[in-house]
Design goal:
Shape: elongated
Strand content: 15-25%
Distance between the termini: 82 Å
Number of strands: 13
Radius of gyration: 25 Å
Order of helices and strands: HEEEHEEEHEEEHEEEHEH
Number of helices: 6
Helix content: 25-40%
Length: 360
């Protein structure tokens, strides 16, 4: 395998360009054999770079239709699912891959979801594996066609040249292959890598209080055997009410009880009023890492924020379709939160307490 040490791209003793070498290798890629990293770097008078400390990026070959005409070297392939941020894409990829592992008798899989970067947002696509592979967890990645080391700006030209050559050789065929870079779905790895991931906030675990924004979307745990009948349907364990204010009051009252039971101010679950089929729901949002709310009206950080009713409806429909599909059915579902009207809810709670005192 080549090791690119400077712009002359010297490979072994035959001076084969990295693109030539990768193209030749792509025509006869051994099943699940991972290449040695291609190390990129610019000539410098500084001390040699410690290549062991460079970031690594796995690259996979994906089949695309012959009619596919990409706009750039990293144009997302047909069949990929698009998300408003890389963080949302990472969370969905982890959910789908976790379901694949659980559905496998021995933990082995024949396909796997990977996360792709976009200039704005993120995407995911399922990669078919030539041989079965046993991941360690939902964040693991299968052996790659090759692994690139270094900054994005240094090696994207190699991917672009390779993809252009693969496109030309695929002319006249039903499909051809393109190389795509997979990015980590681990929460701790979600940070800018040469380009912004896109605007987003993380779900749960944020120590600081967050005010809910219109269009905030949360991923909610639901029973594994739940069979939804619409994108906004609620399973039996969650309460469904007709009145918006009743849902708000019920959620705040339940959250007050959670705060009262907390010994150190942190909670590991929170009640959120959401839009649901037939009215409004009061759902429980689980926070494994814990969260310290400012008060019963506070809200943890949502998975993402989708402004606009029409856009949000389509987003929830597509996301829940993916989460409900196949073996991942019923583990998590996405719901849009209802903004809590603090003055109105406070007045309702005061009225309830006053009536209770009179009855006493």
């Amino acid at each position: 395998m080549c090791t690119i040490q400077n712009p002359s791209f010297v490979c072994d003793t035959h001076h084969v360009s990295p693109v030539d070498h990768l193209f030749q290798w792509s025509t006869n890629w051994p099943a699940l054999e991972t290449s040695k990293p291609v190390v990129t770097g610019n000539p410098s008078t500084d001390p040699p770079i410690d290549t062991e400390r460079l970031s690594e990026y796995p690259v996979y070959l994906v089949s695309v239709p012959a009619s596919f005409t990409p706009d750039s070297w990293h144009t997302v392939p047909p069949g990929a699912n698009h998300y408003p941020s890389g963080e949302v894409a990472a969370e969905v990829v982890a959910v789908l891959n976790r379901a694949k592992i659980k559905a496998s008798p021995d933990g082995s899989v024949t396909s796997w979801f990977i996360r792709l970067r976009k200039s704005t947002g993120g995407a995911s696509i399922s990669v078919n594996l030539i041989q079965t592979w046993k991941p360690m967890n939902e964040y693991d990645l299968p052996p790659a066609f090759m692994t690139m080391k270094g900054q994005v700006m240094q090696w994207r030209g190699i991917i672009a040249d390779l993809n252009e050559r693969l496109r030309r050789t695929g002319a006249g065929r039903g499909c051809y292959q393109r190389a795509y870079v997979a990015h980590s779905s681990r929460p701790e790895d979600l940070k800018p890598l040469g380009q912004p991931e896109g605007e987003s906030v993380s779900s749960g675990g944020d120590a600081g209080p967050k005010q809910i924004q219109p269009g905030s979307v949360y991923l909610i745990d639901v029973p594994k055997d739940y069979e939804p009948y619409s994108p906004k349907s609620l399973p039996g364990p969650f309460q469904l009410v007709k009145d918006r204010e009743i849902a708000q009051v019920a959620a705040v009252r339940a959250n007050q009880r959670l705060i009262e039971r907390s010994t150190h101010g942190a909670v590991f679950a929170w009640y959120i009023p959401v839009d649901a089929s037939g009215g409004y729901g009061i759902v429980q949002f689980n926070i494994p890492s814990g969260w310290a709310p400012a008060d019963a009206y506070d809200m943890p950080a949502p998975m993402t924020v989708i402004p606009g009713k029409k856009k949000r409806k389509q987003f929830l429909k597509e996301l829940n379709r993916q989460l409900d599909r196949g073996c991942s059915r019923g583990r998590k579902r996405a719901y849009a939160a209802v903004m809590v009207d603090r003055p109105a809810v406070s007045q309702s709670l005061r009225s309830d307490r006053k009536k209770g005192n009179q009855n006493d």
